[in-house]
Write a structure and sequence with these properties.
The structure is a single chain. With 299 residues, the protein is of the alpha+beta class. It has a domain at 77-191 and 243-282: Elongation Factor Tu (Ef-tu), domain 3 (Beta Barrel), CATH 2.40.30. It has helices at 7-11, 20-24, 61-68, 137-145, 197-201, 294-298; strands at residues 78-89, 96-103, 108-113, 122-127, 153-158, 182-188, 193-195, 240-242, 246-258, 263-267, 277-282. The strands form three sheets. Strands 1-2-10-9-6-11 form a six-stranded antiparallel beta barrel. It binds 2-acetamido-2-deoxy-beta-D-glucopyranose. 2-acetamido-2-deoxy-beta-D-glucopyranose binds next to loops.
């Protein structure tokens, strides 16, 4: 007796008679491997920029700049010195608000970065003053070529386009920022030196007793042994230098501006000790402050 075909199978159309499109639906874009050990979790399709109607991302510098432009501020920022913290009382609610006092000291535009020459738009801003004998010749030449006195701190602020390039030599005073607007601040956090895992990463440490000997604050095992690779995985949290790394605090409200003394008071805390350098720029996650376009107001 010949083997009988089940009813279900008999109903299916023969594959080689089907038009190509219906057979192709079964095949995903991931090639199915016919050799080796089959993985239980086969590689997924690329979930980035895949699908109909999505623009194809280009890897050219111009395309990268266009994508980046959405997240770049229109105006340059300023370099300030953290003077310390205090508190002011909100006149409406009577609430005490902790705030940070920042001071702008002889902040001037030193030079520009343009897309034609450097590949991006940025304003180089300097602050403070340094004795010319204490500056390298090359940096001194850079300052004198632009007609600027030597600056102690020099930083770049990226801007969206050419309209954000303030003229070289233009002073940036505290009233560059409006009361009520929001700023992002960048500064280095306080350095803590070489710190153990409990302080640096919040590990629990080991028991005080139960036979634990001299390793109460150490990390314990650093990884699996045979079977897990017999190695320490990349990114393993260990003891090391803590702090003194750049930290950005976003969306700080400007509470007070005093252009005569170069003071900008922002709500809340800014990373770093008193006297550290803080970079202030319009917050990218809040609406831009309502001011004239920078190049117009400068003229
Ligand atoms: C140069 O810098 C050093 C170290 O900061 C400082 O002690 C010295 O006074 C500076 N020299 C001048 C001429 O300002």
């Amino acid at each position: 007796m010949s083997p009988r075909i089940t009813r279900k199978l008999a109903q299916l159309p023969l594959l080689f008679l089907c038009p190509r499109s219906t057979t192709a639906t079964a095949i995903t874009s991931v090639p199915i491997r016919t050799f080796g050990i089959r993985s239980l979790n086969p590689p997924k399709e690329n979930r980035f920029n895949a699908g109909p109607g999505l623009p194809v991302l280009k890897s050219t510098p111009t395309a990268a700049l266009e994508r980046k432009a959405y997240t770049l501020p229109l105006r340059t920022g300023a370099v300030a010195i953290k003077k310390g913290m205090t508190a002011i009382f909100d006149t409406e609610t009577g609430q005490r608000v902790a705030c940070t006092v920042l001071q702008l000291d002889r902040v001037e535009v030193v030079s520009h970065k343009t897309v034609e020459k450097h590949g991006y738009f940025a304003v180089q801003v300097g602050a403070g003053w340094k004795h010319p004998s204490n500056i390298t010749k090359s940096l001194l030449g850079h300052f004198s070529a632009n007609g600027i006195s030597p600056k102690r701190h020099v930083y770049e602020f990226r801007v969206k386009d050419g309209r954000g390039l303030l003229p070289v030599g233009q002073a940036i005073t505290a009233d560059w920022f409006q009361e009520g607007q929001y700023v992002d601040t960048r500064s280095n956090s306080k350095g803590k030196g070489f710190a153990g895992v409990m302080k640096r990463h919040g590990f629990h440490g080991q028991d005080r007793s139960h036979g634990v000997s001299l390793t109460h604050r150490s990390l314990g095992s650093a990884g699996p042994s045979q079977g897990g690779g017999s190695r320490v995985y990349p990114g393993k949290k260990m003891a090391g230098n803590m702090g003194n790394e750049q930290n950005t605090v976003q969306n700080l409200k400007v509470l007070k501006v005093d252009p005569a003394n170069g003071i900008v008071v922002v709500k809340g805390a800014v990373s770093g000790p008193r006297g550290c350098v803080v970079r202030l720029q319009d917050a990218i996650k809040k609406p831009w402050p309502e001011v004239k376009p920078p190049t117009e107001s400068a003229a």
